[in-house]
Amino acid sequence: METYSWMREFADSWMLLALTLFFLGVIVWAFRPGSRETHLETANIPFRNDTTGPLDGADGTDPKGGHYQIGDAK
């Protein structure tokens, strides 16, 4: 069996299986129970040192009057 045919057969069968299992494992890991807090903390990294909050007002002021973080109820 020549090299190309062997590599093609490997990619079509075992590598497909391995990558499918890897993909499913990543999905299970990302949506595992208890990971919500970790994801919210990671999502808020850019806003850690932000003291002004979002500027939503038409005049450039913060209508909420406080610090906003992802996950806060509106």
Unreliable spans are none
Mean pLDDT: 78
Using the alpha-carbon principal axes, give the shape: elongated
The amount of beta strand, in percent, is: under 5%
How many helices? The count is 2
Number-wise, the strands total 0
Structural class designation: mainly alpha
List the secondary-structure elements in sequence, H or E: HH
DSSP helix fraction: 40-55%
Gyration radius, rounded: 23 Å
Pfam families: FixQ (PF05545)
Organism: Sulfitobacter mediterraneus
Protein name: Cytochrome oxidase
Region (Disordered): 42-74
Structure description:
With 74 residues, the protein is mainly alpha-helical. The protein has a domain at 3-36. 49% of the residues lie in helices and 0% in strands. The protein is built from two helices and no strands. The chain has helices spanning 3-30, 36-43. The longest helix has 28 residues, at 3-30. The protein is elongated, with a radius of gyration of 23 Å.
